[in-house]
Amino acid sequence: MLPAQLNDAVIALLQQEGKVFLGWEYGIPVASAPGYTPGQLYRVIDYDERSGVLQLKPEGKAASEAHRMTFDKYSSMFTAMGVKRIEIISPYKQITLATGYTQPISPGYRDRRPAYSPPPPAAPSSPPRWYEPPPIEPPKPVRFTEPHTFDIRQAVFDDGTISFTLKVKSMFQNVEVTINNPSVKKYFDAVKNYIYKLFGSKKTSCLVTFEVRDRKCVAVEVGDCVLSSMDETILQHIHDGWIKQVVLSAERDEIVSLDELVEQVRDETLNPETVFNHIVQEEKTKHYHHLRFLSARQAIDLQKLSLTGKPISFVFLTRENGALFLIWETYLSEEATYIWKLAKPEQVLEKYALILEMRKSKRMIYRRKKEEGFYYIEHDYQQAMNGFHKWKEEIENIFKTA
User: DSSP assignment, residue 258?
Assistant: First the structure.
């Protein structure tokens, strides 16, 4: 059944990309509209709901961009009707009855046509006088919402945002989507593989509202996504993941300062002090008291607290009784504490190279050399606090007598 608004309406359609469009986003193949002529006005005659056939009759030439008025006014109606085929009724296949009413010839009517029937009128070559092309206005934005999934590993994390690309099949376009979350930090991008493990899946779902503007599809709203509502518990897990993956990297093959590592992610919750406190907890390290003792004596005016991997360990520089001491203490492994007395700060880099070399299981060979200014202390894990009191007494004695 034809909607009342379309009854006897005059419309203009657009042919583009192998389709005849009845609205901004709704079209049928050209093959389903035999006889359609671009740039033509058509009058709506009838519509068959069962077959989805829309009957149109030519009404003359359409003004340029006349289809815009049709799309703005009737686009939603044609979409709801689900038109599948257009049937063009030729103006030459008409008769005029005695009453003066003109209608298309139906099958079998030829035998009943009066002999005096006048010839069919010629098709008008110009639009009806009553038709005035409407002013050309830009099409109104069209919105639609679709569920999507995206791969967390492909997302880009930045301060306050998470961005990713979705393929919108209905528009044949790739669309950039952004989720806003003030809790998100740029350094999350370095631990994306850890983040997806927290959620139990590499892919996460979301409900995205798109808007079509001048045939370009843009994302205007994102809902139902777990990444947009990450709470403090999840954020703390991410902090832990970043520290484990970046700071406590067992694969690190150089000595770097903790300040340098944290600088790229520094904020009110992550700074060298908070990261060190997070790392050095009694239940996490064999040398909790030892590391605390050494960090409190760090000569930060000469060197920032530094660490390396293979094994994960810390390098301290302390100023004791007018002398400088470089101290290498491990994090979890049970190696001895190694101590060098330095004549000047410039020797720090020289000892860095030595420490990196000693990690390759050459400690015992070096210890047998008994190099001047070199000391080491074995840990006694049978005593309370992993032998901290005995260790403290020995290292303070070295500071006094070296």
Answer: H
pLDDT of the residue at 106: 45
Sorted by sequence, the CB contacts under 8 Å of residue 45 that are 6+ apart come out as 55, 56, 57, 89, 104
User: Could you tell me the pLDDT band of residue 131, with boundaries at 50, 70 and 90?
Assistant: low
- Rounded-to-integer distance, Cα 321 and Cα 398, Å: 11
Q: What is the pLDDT of residues 11-43, one digit of tens each?
A: 999 888 889 998 888 899 999 999 898 889 999
- State the pLDDT confidence band at 115, using cuts at 50, 70 and 90: low
pLDDT of residue 146: 93
State pLDDT tens for residues 162-179: 999 999 988 889 999 999
Backbone angles phi, psi at 260, to 5 degrees: -65, -40
In order, the DSSP letters of 200-244 are: T-SEEEEEEEEEEETTEEEEEEEES-GGGG--HHHHHHHHHHHII
What is the reported pLDDT for 127? 53
Residues contacting residue 93 through CB under 8 Å, at least 6 positions apart: 104, 105, 120
CA 396 to CA 377: how far, in whole Å?
A: 11
Pairwise CA distance, residues 191 & 162, whole Å = 13
Tell me what the mean pLDDT of segment 104-129 comes to. Answer: 53
Q: pLDDT band for position 125 (50/70/90)?
A: low
Q: Which of 297, 378, 285 is nearest to 338 (CA)?
A: 378
Residue 13 and residue 56: Cα distance in Å, rounded?
Answer: 11
Nearest to 208 by CA among 152, 145, 156, 142: 145
**Residue 172 contacts residue 234 (beta carbons within 8 Å):** no
User: Within a 10 A sphere around the Cβ of 86, how many other Cβ atoms?
Assistant: 21
Q: Which residue intervals of 105-181 are DSSP H helices?
A: none
> Reduced to 3 states, what is the DSSP secondary structure of residue 256?
strand
- For the residues of 328-355, what is the DSSP string, one character each? EEESSS-PPEEEEEESSGGGHHHHHHHH
Mean pLDDT throughout 54-64?
89
Q: How far apart are CA 133 and CA 164, in angstroms?
A: 43
Asked whether the beta carbons of 314 and 294 are under 8 A apart, the reply is: yes
Distance of alpha carbon 374 from the chain centroid: 53
